[in-house]
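Sample entry (513 residues):
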Amino acid sequence: MRLKKTSTRRKTAVAQAKTKTSQSTPARISSRNTSNPAKNSLPKDTASSAKSTSTKRKTPSHDLAQPPSKRTKAVSEPRATAASEKTTTAPRPLSPGPALNQPPSQPLSVFVVGSGECGELGLGPNETETQRPRINPFLNPKGPSSKYKVFQLSCGGMNTVARTVDNKIVTWGVNVNYALGRNTDWDGVLRDVDADSSNEEEEGELNPHEFTPTAIPGSAFPLDTRFVHVAAGDSCSFALTDTGLVYGWGTFRDGSGNEQFGYDTDGRFVKGQKKPVLIPGIQNITQITCGANHVLALEANGRVWGWGSDEQNQLGHRLLDVMPNTSDPVSLKDNVWAGGLNSFGEAGYAKGAGSDSALLPYPIKIPGLGSENVVVIDGGAHHSAAVTATGECLVWGRIDGGKLGVEFTSSQLDDEQVIRYDERDKPRNCLQPTLARGTGRAVHVACGTGHTVFVNEAGKGFAAGLGSSGQLGLGSDDDVEVARQVQSKDLEGRVLTWAGAGGQFSIVAGPTA
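Predicted structure, serialized as tokens:
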């Protein structure tokens, strides 16, 4: 099969990657009371959740919260030539303690849609796009090509990490900054994504080690390590064990493109972590979640640890914490808190929202969510969404492009406490959590850079927002203002329970039929 020329969309997508500074995987909030959490309290920061915006549609500069590093060629994994890219060995836990966390056991069928020009879809090197959800053959528990049975996934901007039933960590997508946690060197002739050619076809192939779901070698972890949850950021990934330990790999980037992961056990600076390493200083963790370039981890006693880039006050403390740290405690009981970027009201706090530099310097209690019993919460570049225990889906933040999937009523549009207009007198920001109608009672929601995917209790998926890479799964590259049901031949008769969203792709999943 001859492969089509890599489009300019891929060049831009790699260059922009995911500017998300919020969370790439929807956080499922524990229903138990937490008595002493830290300032960076939510398992999500609703700052700017930058998954890469579509490249068929010109992206305003304020859609990109921070410029990620540019990948000029589809190259194999860079080789370390300096101590700054040193790979440390995952240390064996001295005393892991009893199990705190239990993994689910139901394998999922995984359906992918959108652009996979950087391997995001995991369909292999010969399939790089689809506008309707397709089952991933490598992750189909009943398929002839199946390699893995997964029960949990997390989408980064251009990469995905998954946990399998037999305790493997599987990754696919872009590996320039080691987000896949494994060696992707390949001896084939790689396609130059920056080649300027008017030909329809182009020599070279796509790296199968990035474009195909592949497990991180078990030797990267101590024996008897059992994983229960994974989380993906822009260029980093993390895995939580049943005993409350966290392993991580990849790198964090600041707004200037500087990369750093942390320090090794000898105190030496590590620019990029190629293989999984135990994160020191934290234990008894029950939940983890990632933004583009920061991580939050919830401890069993209610404290929240955060590390990574803090340029938009995502962490509530220093500008760059490359090691886990806590801040002042706040009460999470019956409350939802948010901090960081609020330029479109994406943090859910109306006061001061709307300017390009609007920030919440520390977590603030969000009005309208405290009594809602939020169980799932997620954020895109400039919008956020949450699901309550009663099945309501609430959305807020940037309106244009259909990111919220809501058809606002005339009374809402006239209410200055709810809607803020731009200089052209167009609705710009939704300042309060607002009910998303038309999708039914919700069980899950996921925010991409500029789109949102909803899952209702009937197991149906809906999508709205920017669609220029086909990431909405609606059969076109059009933007959609009001959420519409996602349908495809592969989804017929399927019941969905989960959704994830990256920059130019989406994933939905449900129990195996």
